Batch of 2 targets.
Target 1
Amino acid sequence: MVRKTASASVVIACFTQRRWHQLSAAIDSVLAQTTAAEEVILVVDHNEELYQRAGGHWPSVRVLRNEFAQGASGARNTGAFMVTSPFVAFLDDDAVADPRWLERLLAEFADPAVIGVGGVVEAAWDGPRPPWFPDEFAWVVGASYPGMPVAVAETRNVWAENMAVRRDRFMEVDGFRMNFGKVGTHSSPEDTDLCLRMAANGGHWLYVPDARIAHHVPPDRSSFRYFLRRSFHEGEGKAALSALSPAGALSSERDYSKRVLPQAVSRGLYQAVLQRRLLPATRAAAIVVGFLAAGAGYTKERIIRAR
């Protein structure tokens, strides 16, 4: 177990009052942890009305304004730069942490070679999950997908919505890259970028399946149009990440594309024929279309950067 003197602060970034219900659930889940946080920091991303409302709502939570440019990277950095605890955990404003979430994340830091950890993200659909939606594209809604480790394992990266870091190692790289990352609902892989830069200085990341959170999925993310748009933006983000990172940075994505996706498509088509049902084939088709959309986004961004 992690030494008794270890402690962590939890940073939650928020940007809109439309998520007030989800934000309240996120904060409540952090305050109910089996291992209490040294401090809970809520950073409001350039929304003065939300800042004023949040400031008087949770007496035990420290509410700050994002001191940097708009976006999740600046908001998270604002919180992490302000704390003094040896570890910092990050949770999204629309996610609810399991009661043992922080306990499980901190336990892995008993190994001094571990620089950061992350865990499982479960999709909490607000309404019925689309029947055509493939498990292999759960990342579209910010959730874990098949092919990820089922036991504690070293990994290239984890997601910022469920992440804890050694603060000193986080500070060595100046935190999340300020000009790269999520702004509003438009995402870029700022968490993968952070993991790569921290690991370049030594140490490794761990994926901890027992450290679980549930990520709210609103109805507007259940459409096929959103699926395509998010897949396209993911491709753009991965092309941008590739330009910022050393060769081989996208090895995990290549393995996922060559191994996990073809197996899922073959399985879906086989089940469709065997069971004489259209739904497995529909999911297989969604995988192909999603992959093509991501590829289109990747190609577009590479062409723009090559000019």
Target 2
Amino acid sequence: MSGVCGVVRADGGEVERSWVEAMVEAARWRGPDGTRVHVAGGVGVGHLARHVMPESAGEEQPWVSGELVVVADARIDNRSELSA
């Protein structure tokens, strides 16, 4: 399974990228296939990839589309329909 981590600032403050990077580093063993971090305003998420299926090998998370950011350890079969 991949790893997921994140921070949400309920007080309206900004999330510092270093906070999420520290969480990713602490769990690096969960992501032998790579890690990525996304920070925007009061939200920061990290993904630690472990590709267990051939379909997941080319995926990159967090997936960002405008203001929507998705990070998950999940299987979504109709990704192309949903992203359209």
